[in-house]
Automatic annotation (TrEMBL):
SUPFAM superfamilies: Ribonuclease H-like (SSF53098)
Taxonomy of the source species: Eukaryota, Metazoa, Ecdysozoa, Arthropoda, Hexapoda
Protein name: Zinc finger MYM-type protein 1
One GO MF term attached to the UniProt entry: protein dimerization activity
Domain TTF-type, chain residue ranges per copy: 48-131
Alphabetical list of InterPro entries matching this protein: DUF4371, HATC_C_dom, RNaseH-like_sf, Znf_TTF
Organism, scientific name: Cyphomyrmex costatus
Recorded coiled-coil stretches: none
Amino acid sequence: YQKLKDICTWPVILTVAEKNVLMEKVPRKICLNYFPKDHKNRNFSEVYYTRKMSNGELIDRQWLVYSKEKNAIFCFPCKLFKSGSGQLETHGFNDWQHTSEKLKRHEVSKTHFKAMDTWTEARFKAINHSNVIHLSEKLYIKEKQKWKNILERLIAIIQYLAEHNMALRGSSDLLNTPNNGNFLGLVELMARYDSVLMEHVSYVKAARHRVTYLSKDTQNELISLMGNRIRNTLIDRIKAAKYFSVILDCTPDISHEEQLSCIIRYIYIHNGEIQICESFTGFLVVKDTSGLGLATTLKQHLNDCGLDFTNCRGQGYDNGANMKGFKSSVQAQLLRENRKAFFTPCGCHNLNLVLADIANVSPKVVTFFGIIQRLYTFLSASNYRYDIAKKHLKLTPKTLSDTRWECRVESVKAVRFQIKEFVQVFEEILTESKDAKTYSEATSLLKEIQFFPFILTIIWYELLVKVNRVSKILQQKDMQIDVTISFLDNLLKELSTFRENGYHKCMRTAKVIAEENNIIPHFLQRRVARSKRQYDYENVDESIKNEEEQFRIQYFLLVIDRAIESFKERFKLYEDLKNNFGFLYNFKKIKNLSKDDLLKNCNNFHILLQDGQISDIDGTDLFEELLSFIQVLPENNQSCLLDILKYLIELKLNLVYPNIYISIRILLTLPVTIATAERSFSKLKLIKNYLRSNTSQERLVGLAMMSIEREISHETDFSNVINDFASAKARKVRF
């Protein structure tokens, strides 16, 4: 409406909207120190803005308007409503010598009176209409702020319950009714001390059918908005990192739906701080658990998140055939589309499978773990027996499990350090027991744990501790592939060393335990089985006559050899990674490489990261950068790739050595274990349990997002969610 500022520039025909704008405002009176003079040396004066009555009173001429552009005066209402054809009503009056006479004649004319009446009435209506709109807007803003205040509290309640994996709903969805759930219960509790919720609860009580926004539908909407907000924050971080890896694992939920947990691993760099992150992006229901079905589901999920699969540099799964197979598994399907998505098997699963392999290597090993399981089963089957066990034992026996990675070490540990206490437990049970079955089982187990070969068999604990220590370290979210390979190499060396001298150490320990518990530390000599000699045999087959030597060969060495063999077999893929990327895992060794070897490794690395004509790095440039960088890299920053990356960022050397910077980011992105996905299943079972088996998938994912990514949830600003939701809901209120 710029053209309406000066009256002489008004359009010939005004639109309704333009008239409404003009009618709402009183014309502005222009006052100048010097008004322009005409050829008679006369000019307009501010005196004409007022009319002097006969009694001397001055009346404001609101209708009179001066145009600076035309140096003329107009009658505002007459021009607005085209009520006449004079100069004041059309092109403007500027005969300053006769201004007074002209104004006096015009302001008493019938056309002017009619225009003034029309203008006054129109202004009154416009002002009233404007006041109504202003009042409506004021009420709307007030109502919006009210709902915003309410929603801030409702979101805080939902966030608290979600982070603590607590149910929101109960058997009733009404306030002040029994069993109405944690959400409404907390609303009622806060309403006692908070004026905003107190007023809202009173409002709800006044009329049951009013809009309350405490229903399950509102809960679902808020949960979905909050979960999406957290996911979007994570996706923005992943996109900023560019390179990422996917970690997947499946499990059935309580409603028999196969849930696929999707974890994204990436490098988060913010304000100079570097963090290796493994972020949860959602649970996905899968109908087809084949490699193709899972791969299709994953790619669709990445596409929905706006992530480019060509930037994926790693895959991490368990050891299921549909996950890691070489022909039709998930990793094979994805490698066909992106050859740079390197597969790394879960280190913890592999270590668990190594233990599973050696747990079945011989009947003696199977018998040992059978006894351990019998101890747990016998004591836990009766509350009375379990109370006796708790009275004597600090470490209660644990059951064995094929899925829990620590189950074996926890089970054996309870026996390893409490032989004497277990003896006391069974002696008390035998003293108090009157049941024949209980007496028989207790007698049998007591004999087993007082048998010296069983005590020596607890050498398992030494082996389990070594493996479990590495497994626990690998489960850290920020574990790096170079550090992982270093730990695995050291574990293999420990196993080899344990094979050479571990038996004698275990024998000494077993004898000490036996003597402390009055157990004779020797092996029972059994009858030597003699084989029939054939007439054409030259020599007699010699059997092992020494029971101890037989135990060492057929148990100890068999177990350790199987452990080493299984370890090498299951971690072969890690050896391949070491061969491909190993020259970058230890920058100290780069100095010892010849230039030809280093250039060869850099070019091979270039080829690995190449797809078609595009590669993430340039091998030749990487070679030149490494030659220069190893000369300036301090000794204390060469321990691992993460330290080197921090050094690059801190000194802004990533701009000087971009190929090294990219290479390290890719290597740190490679997954080590699927422990984060396993942890997400713990949350799944807490959120979607027996009592909440009908939870919708959208609600499940939203609650899981807040629970699993609770740190991001605390950092996330939900004000946009509140504003959008409050604006939409405020319009539903009738004023």
